[in-house]
């Protein structure tokens, strides 16, 4: 087993890199989850997908925080707010 790089904790070091493709996959999966759960309308989901594909920094930041901290609730809350047209609070 490889040792983690200096300056990283072992849990973060064992995760693969967060690539653009992986970021899209996570964000789109969350959008599907919000739509299926009735938390976003089809219109809101479409707006959220526009944010995702426009490389909105808020989406990227939310996914990165999810990736590092496994905070799915924060990811869903941020993406829900973007889909509803509100700034996340």
Automatic annotation (TrEMBL):
<protein>
    <submittedName>
        <fullName>Uncharacterized protein</fullName>
    </submittedName>
</protein>
């Amino acid at each position: 087993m490889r040792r983690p790089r200096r300056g990283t904790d072992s849990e973060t070091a064992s995760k693969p890199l967060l690539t653009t493709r992986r970021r899209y996959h996570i964000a789109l999966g969350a959008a599907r989850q919000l739509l299926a759960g009735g938390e976003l309308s089809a219109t809101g989901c479409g707006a959220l997908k526009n944010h995702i594909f426009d490389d909105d920094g808020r989406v990227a930041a939310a996914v990165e925080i999810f990736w590092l901290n496994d905070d799915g609730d924060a990811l869903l809350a941020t993406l829900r707010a973007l889909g509803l047209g509100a700034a996340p609070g």
